[in-house]
Design a protein that fits this description.
The chain is an alpha+beta fold. Helix content is about 55%, strand content about 10%. Strands 1, 2, 3, 4, 5, 6, 7 and 8 form an eight-stranded mixed sheet that branches. A two-stranded antiparallel ribbon has the order 9-10. A hairpin with a 5-residue loop joins strand 2 and strand 3. The model has no long low-confidence stretch (mean pLDDT about 95).
Length: about 600
């Protein structure tokens, strides 16, 4: 793995075999004055307009939600991802990720907002005709009308293309007659415009723009949900709804392009949102730990509590490093595709598709980071955490859906490996050369590594070995199982977990190095500590996943060789994680909140 000439940005999935220059890593200091003005406007709107009504929103006050969305439209907040010609004021992808993160503190309202400006509106922007864009986007951006996205059906969740809803062209050729049922539709209770997917002629999966007031469209009752109770979720029924042919979205039979490409963007935006949720939970955890006294002292002085607070912050900070890394890469790729003559929609969709592997990793890692953070937060609160009077019970219930949204975490895990192997088969990533080099290396005697110098260089060498471990295990697994691998879901998930650990570990190092360049090494002491703790533990998790993947199929010489490779490439010196976690916890407790927003 060549490290002398580092790239500004890697192609999607290339992180497995190459390294990137940390100078191009995104940190919050990279935000421009205009970007900060947008974020300050969003913060002021949320803090002054939304949060005072948070309790009422959670009681499913739809009129309140609509009025707050209208206010957001008046301020321009619904238009940060949309061009000026439709009433928006287009911001780059990193800015929109930051907006999404801050909205997370509004709980259910963030879902109403996100479904409206994301899966509800983006399909029209990216796949609609100019006439469709002019007709629908201005009123949606202004908050005068609201949008929803109808994909899931009772019999098709992760397998979206198995939808049973049908659309048949009328005899006069003027309309498609739409019949079917959709479920779990966010914003259904107040949406005016629905993006709906149905089978044309029974087998051509196609998108349509459907209006609420058209005859034959009806709604089920509001779902009684475990969490996100303040967001509207209903079934939507279509009974002989006449959809004008001019409301076909995209091409007949190409609805999968809409559904899957919008999911790539949805996955990384979900990661931004859940990390915003993590920070809110950490703030509550710190504040309660400082206030709560047991045995005559604050529980924040207990090592077990400090461990929890530090680990909440470490996982959040490291996952956020990966989010910023991917966001910057998508921004870079989008600009490159625009310069090549692609339209706005095609450029961003193409950029998100390029980094679909990373988006899937972030969706999994982000949602599981929030689940961990909320669970530990509730534990810090103890019995009070189980009470609806404290913030943790609601956060606990709300967090669970994120491992199901935007494709279940199991589906996303398997997708990461599938997409990587397909890129390799198409020649977009060269996995073969480094895999062959590793096989030669394994056949030779190990060389003693010299002393590592430089910031986190020891940890970077660990990450390089983690990549070698993945290539060794994945390479031999693919060679032996070939097409049968797609049936071995447990192995795919093991390999995916290895990929996720590699991406997050390397991203944390890159973030530290960039911060050291910009702010100096004296600034990043805690960040180095967090990175060292995370990589220390990640090496153990990666080894466990690798051993499970190998033992699931290999035996005899193959198994012995793989186990030796895993042992060789996951060898590392343990660090004093207790000391480092206490260092991080002390900073957090002194600050009184999650203070690593850089």
């Amino acid at each position: 793995m060549e490290t002398k000439e580092l790239k500004q940005v890697l192609s999607g999935g290339e992180f497995i075999v190459n390294e990137v220059d940390p100078r191009y890593m995104f940190i919050m200091d990279d935000m421009t004055e205009e970007q900060n003005m947008v974020l300050n406007m969003v913060r002021e709107y949320i803090d002054k307009e939304v949060m005072p009504h948070a309790a009422q929103i959670e009681k499913l006050d739809i009129e309140l939600t609509k009025s707050l969305l209208r206010k957001a439209g008046e301020l321009g907040i619904l238009g940060t991802a949309f061009p000026e010609e439709y009433g928006g004021f287009m911001q780059d992808f990193e800015t929109n990720l930051a907006v999404t993160e801050y909205f997370a503190k509004t709980r259910s309202f963030s879902l109403s907002y996100g479904a409206h400006i994301g899966i509800g509106m983006l399909p029209i922007l990216y796949f609609g005709t100019e006439e469709q864009k002019q007709k629908y986007l201005p009123s949606l951006i202004a908050g005068e009308k609201f949008a929803a996205y109808c994909l899931t059906e009772p019999g098709s969740g992760s397998d979206a293309l198995a939808a049973k809803s049908k659309a048949i062209l009328s005899e006069d050729g003027q309309h498609y007659i739409l019949n079917g049922q959709k479920m779990w539709i966010t914003n259904a209770g107040f949406a005016d415009v629905f993006v709906v997917f149905a089978q044309v002629d029974g087998d051509k999966f196609t998108g349509f723009i459907v209006e609420r007031n058209w005859e034959g469209l009806s709604l089920g009752a509001e779902e009684a949900k475990m969490g996100i109770k303040g967001s509207s979720t209903r079934q939507v029924f279509f009974e002989n709804v006449k959809v004008p042919v001019g409301n076909v979205l995209g091409e007949i039979g190409k609805g999968h392009k809409i559904a899957f490409n919008i999911l790539n963007i949805g996955r990384i935006k979900l990661a931004a949102g859940v990390l915003g949720g993590c920070k809110t939970v950490i703030d509550h955890s710190i504040q309660y730990a400082k206030e709560r006294k047991q045995f005559g002292v604050s529980i924040s002085t207990f090592g077990a509590i400090q461990h929890k607070i530090a680990e909440q912050a470490i996982r959040t900070w490291v996952t956020e490093a990966a989010l910023h890394r991917c966001g910057r890469a998508i921004d870079h790729e989008e600009k490159k595709q625009k310069e090549a003559g692609k339209s706005l929609g095609d450029a961003l969709l193409g950029a998100a598709e390029e980094y679909a592997i990373e988006c899937a990793i972030l969706k999994v890692r982000g949602s599981e980071c929030l689940s961990f953070t909320v669970d530990e937060g509730l534990q810090i609160y103890g019995g009070m955490g189980y009470s609806e009077e404290a913030p943790m019970a609601g956060a606990y219930r709300d967090s669970r859906i994120n491992r199901i949204f935007e494709g279940t975490n199991e589906i996303n895990r398997m997708l990461t490996v599938d997409m990587l192997l397909k890129k390799a088969m198409r020649g977009q990533i060269d996995l073969m050369s480094p895999a062959m080099a590793i096989q030669k290396e394994l056949a030779s005697m190990p060389t003693l590594g010299g002393e590592s110098s430089g910031l986190l260089e020891t940890e970077m060498n660990y990450v390089r070995n983690m990549k070698k471990c993945f290539l060794a295990v994945a390479g031999l697994t693919v060679q032996n199982l070939m097409m049968e691998l797609q049936k071995e879901q447990e192995i795919l998930m093991n390999l995916s977990d290895m990929m996720g650990e590699i991406y997050l570990c390397e991203s944390a190092i890159l973030r530290c190095k960039k911060l050291a360049i910009v702010k100096g090494e004296d600034f990043i002491g805690d960040r180095v500590a967090m990175t060292q703790v995370y990589i220390n533990d990640a090496m153990e998790r990666l080894a466990f996943s690798a051993k499970n993947a190998a033992a699931a199929w290999a035996e005899g010489d193959n198994l012995r060789m793989l186990m030796l490779a895993i042992k060789r490439y996951t060898k590392h010196e343990f660090v004093n994680t207790k000391k480092l976690r206490r260092q991080v916890a002390e900073t957090l407790l002194n600050a009184g909140n999650f203070c690593y927003n850089d």
